[in-house]
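Appendix B, example 12.
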Amino acid sequence: MEALLDRLRATVGADGVLTGVDLSPFAVEGRTPDAAVFPRTVDEVAAVVQQAAASGASIIPWGGGTAIAVGEPQPRAGVVLGLRRLDRLIEHEPGDLTATAQAGLTLGGLQTALRGRGQWLSLDPPDAERATVGGLVAANASGPRRHLYGTVRDLLIGLTVVTADGAVVRGGGRVVKNVAGYDLPKLFIGSYGTLGIVVEATFKLRPLPDDERLVAARFERLKDAGAAARALLASDLIPNAVELLDGASAAAMGLEGAATLVVGFDGLAEQVQWQASELAALLGPLGGHTVAGLPPAAWARLPALARAAFASPAAVVAFSVLPTLVVDTMEQAAAAARQRGLASAWTAHAGVGAVTGALDADREVEVVATVLAEWRAIARAGGGYATLAWAPLAVKAQVPVWDDAGPAGRVMQRIKAQLDPHNVLNPGRFVAGI
């Protein structure tokens, strides 16, 4: 290991290599890496990958660390490859509505730079001040505004990655219209650093809206809030967010602890005002009470509300189901938890079928594992799947993080074998053991 550390210091400088007690911020689930390395250029990233791989060390790509605990535990210690020193906005073309940024630039920093030119990247994942451009791509991270604007997959137009053998590969381009061919960047979206290390990304942008508003309506029952959400989606209104909260999540937001529908609008000020008024008129006859505006700061709290309902949750699960099954999934899973004596909290991007459930931690691990297995069965029964988005190591030891990927998992394993034949990048972290 000392020989590798000497080579790494020669490549990135002594101040770019951490060891010993300095590694404590990079310990994940009780495992501390052998070293943390922080390159300053794409060429240095490639060199670090080559040196670590040649020494038989696994590589753990690290952006802001916001999603670093997602996935199966690392089977062995490795080298953290931190990207925080690659933090430049490389190019911003306001006329083309595109921007290219290095992977270590935080989303908050990128948005600040873009706002100066009247534009923004329409992504709003949790903890935007820490989440990095590379991490957004690796985790396909998004938030409430995905209802209208989509996810990273919809906004990414170009990507530069360093592969497991240290090759620098570029795909896509820096303009919206590109030549035909394989859409290589899409392969790396949501791959959690197992196929390549994202070092640069180019996105489509949008003009900043003149006005934006977030409105909340309380309902007596979750079913009523769900019916109101369906009515909204069938109307002529164009919300940018449609969030469904159960009572526990609503209370975590500081609202009255009842089922709540939270709706966002943006655009011209007159248009936003009209849509908010029409929403109130629509929801009233459907049982909506106290249709009121929320402060702008509420946007940042929405993505992590279910987890915030408990001081120390036992687990957080992400479900993907049909939008028509959102309420049924939330109610059935909450009932399964209650039958085992556990409280739960729920939120959903109601229009896209993305549900998040958090489980309280006041029972033994075996009971938690039983509930999580029941939650996964509920998701599968509706044709969806469930992912253990966060849990302590004791829970992960009993519950698989990823659902069974079926035939798709075998395809993913073959792709991994082609791009990372020596299993260097984040080994074992992702679906199907890749």
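Residues 162 and 384 are 33 Å apart (CA to CA). The radius of gyration is 22 Å.
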